[in-house]
Amino acid sequence: MKDQPLPSRRMFLAALPVVTAGLAASPPARAAGGVQPRWGMLIDTRRCIGCQACTIGCSMENALPIGQFRTTVATYAVTNGYGRTGVAMVPRTCNHCDEPPCIPVCPVGATYKRDDGVVLVDGDKCVGCAYCTQACPYEARFINHETGKADKCTFCSHRVDAGLLPACVETCVGGARVFGDLNDANSEISRRIKAAAGRTSVLKPEANSKPNVFYIGLDSELDGRVEGESAAEMMWRPGQTTHGA
């Protein structure tokens, strides 16, 4: 009997939304009626378990250098008014703002915003000056150790353009991330945001950057914070010396 071939990683990941969350559907390349889509993400922190599947899925999909991440899940110890302490999860990524402060500071025009709202970096133009990384209020940008260029979440635009979901959404085992067209009132993300009216928030609202990443269940004590230990940052890496060694 011949050995059966093992399923590919792409086949495995494609099945994840059905097997786990059952919430994600592939986004259309263009909204109904030919209206230009405006992509956004809704993150339900109540569903996030801090497993970092999104972080690893993103790293694998985008071939990121070891130790550098486009999305992470920060963890915080929080204490309520009754003195009870728990752990809060805050998934973080580029917010693909409507008024991105990273664009005007770029001296060569490498950072730009597509018509569908996705903020990208043109690697051929980028000189690695890091002005944009300093301007981002969400600390969502970094200089790639291998390319020397500015790097960040792209909403997996190469996947979205092909009608697929971003890797972080597809790999989220808890269904905490919903991606879709904010211009389509019937899209999953629009319906979720409408259903949660008055209970959604954004990170650092005082930055006035008009982010397109929204949160449900985000503790008000954390909406202005972007720093924090991430489990991904604490993972063992090749060549890393363990404590006490």
From TrEMBL:
Keywords: 4Fe-4S, Iron, Iron-sulfur, Metal-binding, Signal. PROSITE patterns: 4FE4S_FER_1 (PS00198), 4FE4S_FER_2 (PS51379), TAT (PS51318). Residues 39-69, 85-116, 117-146 form the 4Fe-4S ferredoxin-type domain. The keyword Iron applies. GO terms for molecular function: 4 iron, 4 sulfur cluster binding; metal ion binding. The keyword DNA damage does not apply. InterPro entries: 4Fe4S_Fe-S-bd, 4Fe4S_Fe_S_CS, DsrO-like, ET_IronSulfur_Cluster-Binding, TAT_signal. Residues 1-31 form the signal peptide. Coiled coil: none annotated. SUPFAM superfamilies: 4Fe-4S ferredoxins. This is 4Fe-4S dicluster domain-containing protein. It comes from Ramlibacter lithotrophicus.
